[in-house]
Design a protein that fits this description.
This protein has helices at 2-5, 12-25, 38-51, 65-77, 80-94, 155-163, 190-198; strands at 102-111, 120-121, 129-138, 143-150, 180-183, 202-205, 212-213, 219-220. The chain is of the alpha/beta class. The termini are far apart.
Length: 225
């Protein structure tokens, strides 16, 4: 059981890097109620995000759910998670596990049951309120940038804001160290091609109408509806 729970916990080595960051961005309050333990709060937040459970369904081994939720909201306002994200990317780069040569971007839609500012009618869900996440990753699938918008915003319009939303500085591409960007056919339009060119990427955009091929190089036909 102990080994299973490790996926919900911050390892000691990682906590040694995160603890100073939390002390800087979220120092102890000078007055008011004493805050819950930061490491226990982060463990609870990870459990909630990985399991998808409701806040009030957190296991009893974690701090009070209301306190964890307040801590989560405070850290969002103070940019704690963005800084932790950048810290992890920098650590991966130091270990040589960050590949800038090949990158990919795409959008994914989701529901927005509780509303918010960045929502719009979802064209694939009968116009219900929804959001779109535009994500850019490196060759191993590690996320480098994300932008949130309404579900009705086209992926192409989010490409440039996503490229400009890197949480760490993007190294400038050169002829010796080019950067390739892979995109699906949703970006095969003047705006998509122009954005890729302006951002100095080598373009790999799937063409509209281009035939699909499987791993055996055999032609695949689209499903008939």
């Amino acid at each position: 059981m102990k080994d299973i729970l490790t996926i919900w916990r911050i390892p000691d080595l990682l906590w040694e890097h995160i603890a100073p960051l939390l002390a800087l961005l979220d120092p102890p309050a000078l007055r008011g109620r004493k805050r819950i333990d930061s490491r226990a709060a982060l463990d609870a937040i990870i459990f909630r995000l990985r399991s998808g459970c409701q806040w009030n369904h957190l296991p009893s081994e974690f701090p009070d759910d209301s306190s964890v939720h307040r801590t989560f909201q405070r850290w969002v306002r103070r940019g704690v998670f963005t800084r932790i994200w950048a810290l992890l990317i920098e650590a991966c780069a130091e270990l040589g596990d960050l590949n800038w040569e090949w990158q990919a971007a795409d959008g994914a839609m989701g529901k927005a049951r509780f509303g918010g500012d960045l929502i719009g009618p979802n064209p694939t869900d009968r116009g219900k309120k929804g959001t779109k996440r535009s994500i850019l990753v490196e060759a191993s699938g590690g996320p480098l940038a994300v932008v949130i918008a309404g579900a009705n915003v086209h992926d192409t319009k989010l490409l440039e804001p996503t490229i400009e939303a890197f949480v760490v500085d993007r190294p400038p591409p050169t002829s010796d160290d080019p950067q390739h960007l892979c995109l699906d056919k949703g970006y095969d339009n003047p705006t998509g091609h122009r954005t890729v060119e302006n951002q100095k990427y080598v373009s790999h955009i799937r063409r509209i109408g281009e035939e699909k091929w499987d791993v055996n190089k055999e032609k695949r036909y689209p499903a008939r509806r």
